[in-house]
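>> received
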Amino acid sequence: MYNHQLRAALQDKRWSIEVASARVGVSRVTFSRWLNGHQQPQPGQLAALCEVFGCAADALGYDHLSKEPPPRPDLDLERPYVLSVLGRPHRPAAAPRLHRGSCRRRIVALRPLAPSEAGRRA
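>> returned
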């Protein structure tokens, strides 16, 4: 979906894609993907985009990215939680690495902090 608001802001500044992408700190291809709707900026990139253009995210067509997600209804925010490691993918010692960091991935879960752990974690 084409981003008409970002295109309008680009034309208001009278910048080319090359100039705008350099000021935001991304490649020309990335900025073009934002314009064409093939990609959306990451939070840090969105902040830089808003700063460079001097307007809010909703004025650039990214109002859905600037809003915080609703809180998870199954979490009691008054109760402490702990992130626990459940395991990691198995890779035999003789197996080649497919890409950097492939053996560092962990499977994690968010679980409530048990009352017996409360004293140890403080």
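>> The chain has a mean pLDDT of 76.
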